[in-house]
Specification:
There is one protein chain. 52% of the residues lie in helices and 15% in strands. Strand 9 and strand 10 form a beta hairpin. The longest helix has 40 residues. The chain is globular, with a radius of gyration of 21 Å.
């Protein structure tokens, strides 16, 4: 999908993205709380700044208006945002819709350009109420061969931080159709569902929604392929964000072990606590390795769709498990202060709980990965 520089040039690009994201998203728990506590949990100025850096087009081909980079660059960026406690829906309201539209053909080009330059915030709405994340199981349905077009149904877990546009994936007969719909379109109903970390998600219901005929972005196999690509990338990048928040939780814990004293010694001097810290570090490193392997698969032009899907599930299963384990241990090692809102760790604990379940939890991705690998091996 993307054209990459090789060798030293690629390493320089990754280093520059890492440094820029590290500086932009330096941990600032006061800022995270302030944005979270706003009505829509959204910082428009930060969003515009990220758009100005070109980050929303990081995985969009250059000939479609993006940076033409790949999974390594996108994962590096999102990992740093996770480490810094940034809760803007970069994955759900920028990268996923951009990837979906980039694979949807020329009709989607104007909306894609608007997402990449930050002038439009968009979300892909498809997940049914049971939380499944299969591209073939959409929560919406479009009546076949009906004029005007009519969409009914419900989708959950839509990023609700004031999107301007929804890219709705709906079943139409045996196929799938992608449709562009304004947030305030008649027949579209929103129900906010705040997540544990304070971020805005939404349940979106379409009842007699009649989009214009020129709002259709893709149909049939093109629509299914575009949606599947967006989901796989979303799974991969959510794993990257989980790795970032896991790393921050571990760093906060190691610092606490160094400065907190008991019986006249830093508690990190006690062997039992050292063993627990090492176990946390191992979980973090396993996640880093799983993510790196998945990124290599995504950036390999010879890898097929099944391989990328399996790689994304492998990374997400490991990241979800590790984040919950590390954050749970971090709370125990901090004591009661670890789960309070006043301590930075509490923000990452809540974030880990939300992201670990987002786009499938560890158990579901283990099942998905096993099924893909078992089928492939036959």
């Amino acid at each position: 999908m993307n054209v990459h520089a090789d060798g030293a040039d690629r390493a320089d690009t990754l280093r520059m993205i890492d440094e820029a994201a590290r500086a932009f998203a330096a941990p600032d728990p006061s800022r995270t709380r302030a944005v979270r506590d706003r009505a829509n949990g959204f910082d428009a100025a930060a969003w515009d700044a990220m758009a100005g850096l070109g980050w929303f087009g990081v995985a969009v081909p250059a000939d479609r208006g993006g940076l033409g980079l790949g999974a390594a660059e996108a994962a590096t960026l999102v990992r740093r945002l996770g480490y810094g406690g940034r809760q803007e829906p970069v994955v759900g309201a920028a990268l996923m819709p951009a990837i979906c539209l980039a694979a949807s053909g020329n009709v989607a080009a104007p909306l894609l350009r608007s997402i990449v330059d930050g002038s439009v915030r968009a979300c892909v709405a498809w997940q049914p109420g049971d939380g499944r994340f299969d591209a073939g199981r959409c929560g919406f349905a479009m009546a076949a061969d009906e004029s005007p077009l009519r969409i009914d149904g419900t989708a959950r877990f839509v990023d609700g931080a004031a999107p301007d546009v929804l890219v709705i994936a709906a079943r139409q007969g045996e196929g799938t159709v992608l449709v562009q719909v304004a947030r305030d379109h008649a027949g579209l109903h929103w129900q906010d569902e705040r997540a544990a970390d304070g971020t805005c998600l939404a349940r979106v219901r379409a009842e007699g929604l009649n989009p214009a005929s020129d709002a259709v972005l893709a149909r049939g196999e093109v629509a299914v392929t575009a949606l599947a690509a967006a989901i796989d990338w979303g799974v991969l990048l959510t794993a990257a964000e989980l790795l970032g928040t896991t790393e921050r939780a571990l760093d906060l814990t190691l610092e606490h072990l160094r400065v907190r004293e008991q019986f006249g010694r830093p508690i990190g001097a006690f062997q039992a606590l050292q063993h627990r810290a090492v176990d946390m570090w191992i979980q973090k490193e396993l996640t880093r390795a799983a993510l790196a392997a998945a990124v290599r698969c995504f950036d390999d032009p010879s890898a097929d769709v099944r391989a990328r899907t399996a790689a994304a599930s492998s990374a997400k299963a490991r990241a979800s498990h590790a984040a919950l384990h590390v954050c749970g241990q971090a709370v125990q090692l901090h004591g009661a202060i670890g789960f309070t809102d006043e301590h930075e760790l509490g923000l990452h604990v809540n974030r880990a709980m939300v992201l670990a379940a987002r786009l499938g939890n560890a158990a579901e991705h283990r099942r998905r990965h096993a099924g893909l690998v078992r089928t492939e091996g036959r």
